[in-house]
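User: Hey, my collaborator sent me this sequence without any context and asked if I could get a structure. I don't really work with proteins. Can you help?
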Amino acid sequence: MLRVDLSLICFLLLAAGLVQGRHVVREHCGDTPKCIETSSFSYTSLFSQRTLDQRIEDLNFWMKKVGAQVKLEIRPTEDKGLGVFALEDIKTGTTLLKASERLVFKRDAIGIRYFRDPNNEQISHFYEFPPLKITDERNQLIIALLYHLRHIDNSLFKEYLLSLPYNQTLAFLRFTDEDLDLLEGDEFLSSKLEGFKESLFDGYQALREVYESSLDVQQRASFLGSDTIPFGDYVWARYIVETRAWTYNGRRYLVPIADFFNLEPREVDFLKYHNVDKTGAATVSAERDFQSGEEVLESYGDNANWLYVAIHGFIPNLNPHECEEIPIITPDFFDQMSPSMRRIAFMLGMGFLHCVKREEWLYLRYGLYNSLLNMDDDEKKACAEQIEMSENQRELLELYLNNCPEKEWKETIVPSILMTISGRIQKYYDISRRIEEIPSDIQAKRPLLSVLKRYYADKIELLNGISRDLSQMDPATIYPRVRTHLELSLIHI
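Assistant: No problem. I've predicted the 3D structure and written it out in structure-token form, which is a compact way to encode the shape of the chain:
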């Protein structure tokens, strides 16, 4: 089949004035996987020439360069591609990697990056990018990755970059129209998939506009070797950033080798075992003990399953962070709340939607809601007047504890929440049934269907558990837990 570079078509049409702005991408790189299939990655031949053994050798070379603090080795795994294995026993908290600032892709270093001196492999120097006013942090990392690919022979990241996957793409781009039709009734996941597509197309258009408007023809020829940014190249770099970069304190960092640790969902604090210091150096520590020969795994943060479905295209086993977004403040409850009481609810972290898990804070939230709901007018007024005086969260919690009573439940929001959960379970059963009705030979050709089956099975199990817990909730035991929770919150503010 003839492969067409759609980014070139888009550019020519734009130059001819036939289509404008974001509609270029919409019209010729539409919202289906066909766009990705026909948009080639410019460096495919460069990547495909490398054998698996060459990739592994180069990555283990990079392991030493990036600053491995213990004996580690990259090897193939049974079902997760490449992984990092321990060559010695490792204790929890042991530093695994420590990458210096110059070996981390991050926002502050996008304008200036290290490159090899072509005359001396032992010397590196700075290369200053031409002025590109890129405001989106993902696009800053993407343009740096593409620049290094263009100048790969002189890049300090050569061995690492050429060992990255090149024939995969973001999961949300692999969903066919038929797959999306199956999701009817799940507005949440459908909207997330569509939102990621919109974000990708908008990001591509924004970066391309900056690139073409900021650099003249000669600069573009030197920078990426093309007048525009090929769409297939952007999709590859976006895949690398979305699936391999850390989100640390709201910022993105791509740390070579650290992105080869495979996933083991755990109830741990990501920031406790991953650190970026003031200089930009990054450190990774062991989240548990590992024996020599064992694959070293890590958590990827408190991500719910929908994110793994949309970005990675898989479901982790026993994800402790799986949750379901449930509207806790019902319309009837909201109508009963005065403006001051609404402010109290939101300042206490009680918004309309919560991603609900089966854990302690779920029941504390419901306890707070029911306390507010059952206050009489005088109690509401006294509580609101005190809360309004607070200037920060600490004062708010202290005033709430001292002035807002814990009330017996004459009314409760639990029945309406249970009704919402019941309706949600039925929708998920309907989606699961539609998937099961697809012939097995067709399912085999659409691998995302098996991911969706597991996704909805886990959802149904979670919601059934939450429903049982809420039905058995005892107000007499909730009140002490609510107060203890708020007092503990004060300690940590």
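In plain terms: The first helix runs from residue 6 to 16. You can pass these tokens on to your collaborator as they are.
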